[in-house]
TrEMBL record:
GO terms for molecular function: flavin adenine dinucleotide binding; sarcosine oxidase activity. This is FAD dependent oxidoreductase. Its cofactor is FAD. Pfam families: DAO. InterPro entries: FAD-dep_OxRdtase, FAD/NAD-bd_sf, MTOX.
Length: 483
């Protein structure tokens, strides 16, 4: 680092790091970097210090981290590295729970309902890897007599629910796997807890729509690589400059707009969320859908929509302490293609997908509503004719292979820009350990001990799949950009 950037009492390997984004990735990274001795400032345009990450307190907030709850699962098919990371994270959640009055991880179990009366390939792969790591006894297959007996002996049988397949002439039921390791995390509450932990650890926060909002990098010529610029800080929208040895981008679905070099790797895509609300005085429903009696349920649906399309994966949570039941539709994550600014390295027909304005995120597309209504008629029959309490689009950061992007950006010299994003809808569960792995990569790059290093590296050498290949002419685009 140049002498001009050094400060009194800074160690040789200590860096001043500016983290953009105070969501799950940014908070976890900031705490881990601070533990390693770095000086960390987090910049965030939303006033999370005021609204405490509560989703109902500021409807303008579009961050996926600001949410009632997220699924915790260790079921990853043949992706053993993510299964093991999930188990590491689960232990950390349980440890964190011990010091809190209200648990952030709720081990209510997760019922993975199949699209038919047989196990799908993903479930068979998951069970094989669970057995490989010694966790097969935590999984209960509904169609397996021995598993049902074991579920009864361990107190899980009431959550191994039966659901009949609609219009089945033989009265067949969907097969299912109950994962007793699964459950949910109270996402907004966890973010606020981590914010307080970060403050206690010495992380500085700058919030505000002007003072906390990224405007641009501050760049200089590199003495090491004359072909590239090095970043020496950032400017915020209030006109102030902030020096830093490294700027770390952890801005979720807005990351590509801050760092267009990510445009090949990531795409903003929206899941559809609806809620119902149970009256506390309705004791029957209140008890039935409590986390003590009701698991998280996921279903990759077999029925087709009216246009013949697969209605996709849907999930539901037990009710919250306020009686809210949240249902999410991920069968189709919708894109919003708009004309990309000049200079964006990768576009599709000159366009890229970015989050819709918050005013346009209060309703879910008809395809999502239809799929959710079908799901409700099967799995939550008491709500079959009920109106939704709320509806919204939740913007995720889909990566080209569902793995995160946590690495230095090669377009900038001297390892001056770091990225920690690309949650692809499954990052929240890793909050307690994500930052530790990311900080290891930050400090040690290819010499990092993290087993996730190879999966999270900058990777322009693999094809865009996972839906990112569709572009503006794809069926998921609900944007108003040029077609």
């Amino acid at each position: 680092m140049p002498d001009a950037m050094k400060e009194p009492n800074m160690g040789q390997n200590q860096k001043r790091v500016a983290v953009i984004g105070a969501g799950i990735f940014g908070l976890s990274l900031a705490i881990a970097l601070r533990k390693k001795g770095h000086i960390v400032t987090v910049f965030e345009r939303n006033r999370y210090d005021k609204n405490k990450y509560e989703p109902e307190d500021d409807e303008r907030v579009q961050a996926a981290s600001v949410d009632l709850n997220k699924i915790f699962r260790a079921s990853y098919g043949n992706k053993l590295h993510y299964q093991r990371l999930a188990m590491e994270s689960r232990a950390a959640w349980l440890s964190l729970n011990e010091g809190l009055e209200d648990a952030l991880f709720v081990g209510c179990g997760m019922l993975r309902v199949q699209p038919s009366d047989e196990l799908g390939a993903l479930e068979r792969e998951t069970l094989a890897n669970m057995e490989r790591d010694g966790f097969r006894d935590t999984q209960f297959v509904k169609s397996n007599v021995d598993d049902r007996k074991r579920a009864t002996s361990q107190g899980w049988s009431d959550k191994l629910l039966d659901f009949d397949i609609p219009n089945s002439t033989e009265h067949r039921a969907f097969d299912a796997v109950l994962d007793s390791l699964g459950g949910l995390t109270r996402c907004s509450a966890a973010c606020y807890q981590y914010y307080k932990m970060a403050v206690s650890a010495g992380v500085e926060f700058i919030f505000g729509s002007e003072e906390g909002a990224f405007q641009s990098f501050i760049e200089e010529n590199s003495v090491v690589d004359a072909s590239k610029k090095r970043v020496v800080g950032l400017k915020t929208k209030d006109g102030k400059s902030h020096k830093a040895h490294v700027v770390a981008v952890a801005a979720g679905s807005f990351s590509t707009q801050l760092l267009p070099e990510l445009s090949y790797h990531l795409e903003s895509a929206a899941g559809s969320l609806v809620t119902y609300k149970i009256d506390r005085n309705n004791k029957t429903l209140w008890d039935k859908y409590s986390p003590e009696n009701f698991p998280v349920i996921t279903w990759r649906s077999a029925p087709r929509a009216c246009d013949g399309k697969d209605t996709g994966t849907i999930y539901v949570f037990p009710r919250t302490e306020d009686g809210i039941i949240k249902i999410g539709y991920r069968g189709v994550k919708f894109t919003n293609f708009q004309t990309a600014p000049n200079g964006v390295p990768f576009t599709q027909d000159g366009q890229w997908s970015i989050p819709l304005p918050y005013e346009d995120c209060k309703a879910v597309p008809p395809q999502a509503e239809e799929a959710i209504r079908t799901f409700v008629s099967i799995f939550l029959p008491e709500f079959d004719e009920a109106e939704f309490y709320t509806t919204k689009l939740c913007w995720y950061t889909d990566s080209l292979d569902n793995s995160f992007v946590i690495d230095y950006v090669p377009h900038y010299a001297d390892q001056s820009v770091f990225v920690c994003t690309g949650g692809s809808g499954h990052g929240a569960k890793f909050m307690p350990v994500l930052g530790e792995h990311a900080a290891d990569i930050f400090d040690n790059t290819d010499h990092a001990e993290s087993h996730m290093r190879t999966h999270w590296r900058w990777r322009e050498d693999i094809p865009r799949i996972n839906g990112l290949e569709e572009g503006p002419d794809g069926p998921r685009n609900i944007g108003g950009g040029p077609k």
